[in-house]
Amino acid sequence: MNKEEAEIKKVNIKADKCKGCELCIEVCPVNILSMSEAINELGYHYAEVDDQDKCLSCGRCAVMCPDILIKVYDINE
Amino acid sequence: MKQDKLKEVAGYPDSMSGRDMHYCPGCTQGIIHRLIGEVIDELKIKEETIGIAPVGCAVLAYDYFDIDMQEASHGRAPAVATGIKRVHPDKMVFTYQGDGDLASIGTAEIIHAANRGEKITTVFVNNAIYGMTGGQMAPTTLLGQKTKTTPRGRSSEETGNPLKVSEMLSMLDGAAYIVRVSTHDLENINKTKQAIKKAFKVQQQGLGFALVEVLSTCPTNWGLSPRQAMEWLEKNMIPEFPPRVFCAPEGVDEL
Amino acid sequence: MGEKKLMKGNEAIAEAAIRAGCRYFFGYPITPQNEIPAYMSRRLPEEGGVFLQAESEVAASNMVYGAAGAGARVMTSSSSPGISLKAEGISYIAAAELPCVIVNMMRGGPGLGGIEPSQSDYFQATKGMAHGNFHLLVMAPSSVQEGVDLMSQAFDLADKYRGPVMLLGDGMIGQMMEPVEFPEKIDPTELPPKEWATDGARGREKNVINSLYLDPDVLENLNWKLQEKYEQMQREDVKYEEYHMEDAVVAVIAYGTAARIALDAVQAAREDGIRVGLIRPITLFPFPEQVIARASAQVDAFLTTELSTGQMVEDVRLAVKGRTPVFFHGRPGGNMLTPEELLEEIKKIRGEVQ
Fold first, then answer.
1. DSSP three-state, residue C125
2. What confidence category does residue A4 fall into, taking pLDDT thresholds of 50, 70 and 90?
3. In a domain, B70, yes or no
4. B126 part of a folded domain
5. What are the residue boundaries of the structural domains of chain C, listed by start?
6. Which helix (H) or strand (E) holds B157?
7. Do domains C5-194+210-236 and C240-353 have the same CATH topology?
8. Cα(C321)–Cα(C341) distance, rounded to whole angstroms?
9. Fewer CB within 10 Å, N or C, chain A?
10. Does residue B141 lie within any of the structural domains?
11. Which domain holds residue B242?
12. Which overall architecture, per CATH, does domain C5-194+210-236 show?
């Protein structure tokens, strides 16, 4: 499934405000975050979610983001 | 499955204002702000809390919290906080200060607030440098560390040694809870949150002065990438500023 | 008005603050105003208030900033060198538009100076307190009773203009004992609420007390807003007193302690047949320039006398605009003017301008 069609967005990143610090990239235990090719309006490459399905909803990326740009959700049973 | 089938695991603290923060990419101050916001949410004290912003990188912090705030002059936040707390002893009052603000120009104010056992909470961000003004030496700058005002590296003969605020303040009887923590990795960030929460609870219980010294990065003025800055902090600052609890009231763990 | 009590100036002024609803005092020891913090440390707790001796005047002025920002009627007091230490805090108080009262019992300066009465801080109080285009409303009592009366008005004026008000006395006013009567007590809880204060954002938007304005347009607007306040002060709150000015050909201009001494000299000169009067500014900012400008059309000369090397005299010259000669006689350092030396000056001036 590619990024756009994923119905469930467990990880939501405000890409337009990302400052490209990359701190979230290393803390993801399943390595599904990477820096974009494109540049946002602030002039930075921004963090993107490569595969929403793999996300464990652990929230580590959100804990590490210095600009509080990441919201993480878990699937309600 | 629709988005509403999901429950939020990590979101945006209600006690924060939603304004974009001006901090440099990778600066862990933003993380510390969020931890404070989460603590204020969890303790349900958003409408009871008054924060005091310092002069330094966090000079605009009053824009980032959705609570009553005051902007103090450089180094005087503990005095401003004292004035507020004495007028509203039932409200929660905290200062947010950097190492230049607290450990340099504001040493008298922080020592006497602690010595009076002022029932306020201080979040003291130690990144071993002056950030806002472009990277000058701070009292906590490490020996050998190059800054705009120690171009050959800080030497103890000329400017003495890194100032140990937590060790110093914990000697004062009025200091109820003094703890040093760090933000250089997830584990330490979570410890920082627990420490801040406990420090606010110490204030809630009226047990006296509480200060959390938070080691923090300054990628821009350390001349490092955000990731390298985390490693530099761990390798260089942790040995000089060992994170631990310096003093705590009994029963603080049950708080 | 209650019955008269014999009280020392410092203590009477402190009591007047309490009666005006002030419940918070942050200060620091410095002669010759020590009786104010001492009195407050005894009396404020009795009134459910808070007295705190700060670690320094710098800290004290910032405690006042915090308490005023939290919505309280709050004051501090000090003397000359201590006021210099509070100057930065006062600039922040003015910029953040915080009401408070600051008492300065002046002493000889500059530097550590002396502890005798002086008027060497006129410039500091009215023009150069600290950085930025701002003023304090400055009032100068010349008796203990007037100190009490002005203190009561000071808190209302601070709230009216949302800014710092200074009561400018000196060691004499502070240490002298005179009979005083006090106005009715004000209950601070009955004062109008301060919607802008930081007392916990319950059921309202957050309030911010701040003096940082990185946007120059915003800071320019604040500057002009402050200037409008000062123009309003000039229109509405100038205070002065005139003595024997109706037929005066020479006018002495003096405030505070110097004015008391000058009045003796004026009366002595009258007895010698010299038609001399006294204009006594009570507000030093806003300065009573109109009454002096008017008098300059009537008198042949002004004699400004101060316990200093000459500071208010510059404002007199500005008001007179060169129409009439303005002479000066002063005694700095804590030495006291005498009526005799002033009478001499008046006679000399009278002779010169005849």
1. helix
2. very low
3. yes
4. yes
5. 5-194+210-236, 240-353
6. helix B156-159
7. yes
8. 27
9. C
10. no
11. 3-132+162-254
12. 3-Layer(aba) Sandwich (3.40)
Structurally, chain B folds into a number of domains equal to 1
Q: How many helices (H) and strands (E) does chain C have?
A: 12, 15
For residue C200, the one-letter residue type is: G
Q: Tell me the per-residue pLDDT of B234-252, one tens digit each, with 9 for 90 and over.
A: 999 999 999 999 999 988 8
Q: Which chains touch C (3 or more CB pairs under 8 A)?
A: B
Instruction: State how far the alpha carbon of B99 is from the alpha carbons of A60, B96, B216, B245, in Å.
Output: 28, 10, 10, 19
Token duo for residue B210: 């509480």
Tokens of A45: 């490459």
What is the ipTM score, two decimals?
0.93
d(CA B223, CA B147): 10
Is B146 part of a structural domain of the chain? no
Measure A48 CA to nearest chain B CA, in Å.
16
| CA gap C140, B14 in Å, rounded | 50
pLDDT band at C3 (very low <50, low <70, confident <90, very high): confident
Instruction: Extract the residue ranges of chain B whose pLDDT is less than 70.
Output: 1-4
| Residue C156, number of CB atoms within 10 A of its CB | 16
Which pLDDT does position B5 carry in this prediction? 77
Strands A70-75 and B209-215: unpaired
Contact: B86, C89; criterion CB under 8 Å: no
Residue type at position A20: G
Shortest Cα distance from B25 to chain A (angstroms)? 5
Q: Give A-chain residues touching B16 at CB under 8 angstroms.
A: 68
Query: What are the start-end ranges of the E strands in chain B?
Result: 6-10, 49-53, 68-71, 92-98, 121-126, 175-182, 209-215, 245-247
For residue A8, the model assigns a pLDDT of: 75
CA angle B122, B127, B132 (to 5 degrees): 90
Query: Which residues does residue A11 pair with via DSSP β-bridges, in sequence order?
Result: A72
Which top CATH class is C240-353?
alpha beta
Instruction: Give strand pairing partners of C170.
Output: C106
Name the amino acid, one letter, at B158.
Answer: E
User: What is the rounded distance in angstroms from the CA atom of residue B168 to the CA atom of residue B208?
Assistant: 16
- pLDDT tens, position by position, C71-127: 999 999 999 999 999 999 999 999 999 999 999 999 999 999 999 999 999 999 999
Residues of C whose CB is below 8 A from B82: 26, 52, 54, 59, 63, 66
Residue B31 has its nearest CB partner, among A57, A58, A66, at A66
CATH of the domain at B225: 3.40.50.970
How close is the nearest chain B Cα to the Cα of A28, in Å? 11
